[in-house]
# Entry
Amino acid sequence: MFDNGVGMNAARNPRRCVGWATMALCGLVLASSAANAAGDNVRTVRDLAGRVGPILGAALVCQDIAQSRIQTVADKFRAVIRDVSNSEAERMDLAQQFDRAVIDGRGTITSGRTDCKSVDRQLADLERSISGPSLATAAPPSPATATPLASIIPPAAAAAPPALAPPPAAAQPAQQAQQQTAAVTGAVTPSIPLASPNVRGVTDKEIRFGIVAPFSGSARELGRQMKLGIDTAFNRVNDAGGVNGRMLHLFAADDGYEPTRTLDGMKQLYEKDQVFGFIGNVGTPTAAVAVPYALERRTLFFGAFTGSGILRNDPPD
# Structure
C-alpha cells in the first residue's frame, strides 16, 4: 500500500504526503471501473479517506472556497468507494471513515493548524489529480511508489486518458442553493446524498442529540437549566426551518450527578435512542466516565458543563 516510502515520508513532509494522496486518488478514479486488485484498492481507499477527507472538511469552513468544488471531489471519491467495495457493509465502513475524516478536517481551520490559502491549494491539487490526462504523466518515476500505483491502474487505463463524465444539466435556482449549502458529512439534503444514508441519529427529518445530566438529587437544577437552555436554542433553530430541513431533538438521561449511573445513561441514549451526539452533559466526575465512552465510538461530545482538563487535551483527542 502506501507504507513503502510514502507512509514513512508523511511524518517528515506532510505537504508531500498530500501530493502523493492526490496522485493515488487520480489513479483510483482512472481504474475504478476495472474492478481488479479489489483488495489492494480497498486498502488504498481506506488510506486515502484519511488524507482526502481532512482537506474537504477544512475547505467547508473556508467561505471563499466554492462548495461546488468540494462537492465535485467528494462525489468522485464516493464513486470510487462504491466501485471498490465488495459488500454493502464494506461500502458503509469506508463511507463512514471518510465522513469522520471530513469532520476532523473542519477542526484544522478552527484550531489554527492550517489556513484557507493552504487548503485552497490542496483542493486545487485534488481537482487536478482527478481531471488530469493520466496518472502515468502525473506521478514521478519513484521506485518507492511504482509498485503500489501500478497495482491500482491497469496498463490500458494508464495508457489512455480517462473518459470524462458529461457535464451536468444547468441546475435550477433551488437546486443551486442546495448544492451551495450541502455539507460533505451528515447534514445533507436528500437530493445530494453525500453522507452515508445510515448515519446514526440523522434522518431526512431530524437530528437526534442526547444529554446525560442530573435531573434528580441535589444538583438537579444544573441539569434542568442546561437542558432548558439547549431546548430553547433548538426551538429557535427549528422555528427557522431546522438544519437543512431537519428538526433538532434532545433526548435526556438522568444520572443524578452520580458517575456510577452515567454509563447507563450514555448507553441508553446511544443504543436505544440512537443519538447522533452528546451535548451539554453536566459534571466533572461524570465526564470522566462519559468521555471515554464517546471517544471509543467516535461520537460527538460537545459543550459539557465542566472545567476539567479531561476535555481540554493538547493535542485534542
